[in-house]
Every structure is written in structure tokens, then in C-alpha cells.
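stage 2 :: seqdesign
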């Protein structure tokens, strides 16, 4: 959950993925007014493997 987020913010309502970024919406987040919404961009990390 995002900092200060509430279950009613609907975090994760929409998710988009690119090669190295996830974009997650919270359409009912109220920080900028009633149901103003928010979008979060999260860099994705490729896990390291020890395969030889």
C-alpha cells in the first residue's frame, strides 16, 4: 500500500507493465481533492541468478 493509503483508494485498480517499470493506479486517492486519484511508477528489478 502507498504511504497514507486506504483500502478505499483502490490501489492497483489498473496496472501497466513495461520492460522495467510497473505503473499502478489508485483512482479514488483523495490527496488533491475528492477522488482525484494517483498513479505510482515502480521500477522493476531483474533477479540475479547463480546459474552456470
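stage 2 :: out
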Amino acid at each position: 500500500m502507498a504511504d497514507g493509503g486506504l483500502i478505499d483508494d483502490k490501489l492497483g485498480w489498473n496496472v501497466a507493465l513495461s520492460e522495467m517499470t510497473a505503473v499502478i493506479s489508485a483512482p479514488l486517492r483523495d490527496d488533491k481533492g475528492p477522488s482525484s486519484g494517483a498513479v505510482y511508477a515502480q521500477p522493476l528489478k531483474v533477479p540475479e541468478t547463480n546459474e552456470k
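stage 3 :: structure notes
- The chain has a mean pLDDT of 84.
- The chain is about 0% helix and 30% strand.
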